[in-house]
Every structure is written in C-alpha cells, then in structure tokens.
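User: Here's a structure from my thesis project, written as structure tokens. My advisor, Dr. K., wants to see whether a designed sequence matches the one we expressed. Can you design one independently, without my sequence as a hint?
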C-alpha cells in the first residue's frame, strides 16, 4: 500500500519539491547566463593597453623619420620605405631583403631579450637597449644581440580617404608586415595592442655585408 503523502500546511509535499526543483533550475540558468556574459564582455576598454588605440593620423612620422612614442599603448609608430632615400641611414634595405619594406607599423616597446624598455637613439639612428646592449633598426629588426629575435609588432589598421581600410598582413614567418600607404592619405588609424606577433629571428644586420 502506497505511503500517505506528507502534508505541509497550505502546500503539498509534491508541490514543495516542484518549487525547489524550479528554483534550482532558475538559479543554475542565471549563473550560466552570468558566466557567458562575463566571458563575452571585453575586460579591456579602448585606449587601455591590451585593447585598441585610436591614433590620430597626424601621429604618423614622415618616411624613415625617427619613431613616434605612444606611451599609453607601449608602442613606437614608424613609417618605413626602403625605396625612398629619405632618412636612409635609419631605414636601409639589407642585402638579404629582396623586396622593399614599406608602410606603417607599431613596434612593442619591450626588448625581446629580457624585457627591458629600449629607447630610440637619435645619434646612432637605431633602437638601443640599456640593459645588455641589443640594437635594432627602425623597423625593429635586430642589428646586434643578445636579443634572440626582432621586436614584436601590433596589428595596425589604416583607413584611407577613398573609404578603404587595410590591416597589417603577415609574412611567411608569421610576423606582422607594415601597412603600405601606396600614396594614399590616411584619415584614421587603430593599433590593437591585444593583437601582437613576435618578431622573427633573422641574421643579425651587423653580420651582413
Ligand atoms: S633586455 Fe634588452 S638587451 Fe637584455
């Protein structure tokens, strides 16, 4: 014979268990939704390191001119063109580089050796690290070790006056390439410091003839 159903004043045992079960499911769904939202909402805001920096096109230096420092974004902006003899002492084409290097790049300000903050040296026309003496060309390629590789770069997106836009491509080694200007006028620029690619290990420039 079935056991008699326990009665709670005003509510049956079956109803009570049903309400508990419904409340548990609702709580679980609320936690699950909260977790999804927590992962979906970006934690880093625009203009904070790790996020996207909206940079004025006027910040772009002239061709092969010294780099422009972006302190908040922790990058140097450079405008390279090895087909242009302007500032060639800063940005020259090495003997193992078959194609011209042209365009705008954003270079991470941390040395690839042990993470010191290197500086641009106007007298020597190169980046120099004060910690152990690594040196880099204007585009971040290693001139002198102990740095194990060239400087890292962030993804750059340029918008042009014809309405088009172009982002950093990558070379066969996976390094971000400068965004070429091709004579176009830049009207907008973003640097995504959350999108970073490591510099590559090429022959030291000091070892090339
Ligand atoms: S950290 Fe830059 S050379 Fe060592």
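Assistant: Designed independently from the structure alone:
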């Amino acid at each position: 014979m079935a056991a008699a159903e326990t009665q709670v004043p005003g509510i049956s045992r079956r109803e009570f268990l049903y309400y508990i079960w419904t409340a548990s499911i609702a709580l679980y769904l609320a936690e699950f939704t909260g977790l999804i939202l927590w992962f979906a909402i970006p934690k880093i805001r625009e203009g904070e390191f790790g996020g996207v920096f909206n940079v004025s096109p006027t910040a772009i230096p002239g061709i092969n001119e010294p780099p422009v420092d972006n302190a908040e974004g922790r990058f140097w902006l450079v405008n390279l063109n090895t087909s242009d003899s302007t500032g060639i002492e800063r940005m020259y084409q090495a003997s193992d580089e078959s194609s011209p290097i042209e365009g705008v790049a954003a270079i991470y300000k941390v040395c690839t050796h042990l993470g010191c903050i290197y500086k641009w040296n106007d007298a020597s026309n190169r980046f120099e690290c004060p910690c152990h003496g690594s040196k880099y060309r204007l585009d971040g390629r290693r001139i002198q070790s102990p740095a194990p590789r060239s400087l890292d770069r962030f993804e750059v997106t340029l918008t042009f006056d014809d309405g088009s836009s172009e982002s950093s491509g990558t070379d066969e080694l996976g390094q971000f390439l400068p965004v070429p200007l091709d004579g176009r006028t830049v009207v907008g620029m973003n640097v995504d410091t959350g999108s970073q690619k490591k510099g590559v290990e090429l022959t030291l420039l000091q070892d090339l003839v």
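When you compare it with your expressed construct, this may help: The chain has two domains: 10-40, 52-207.
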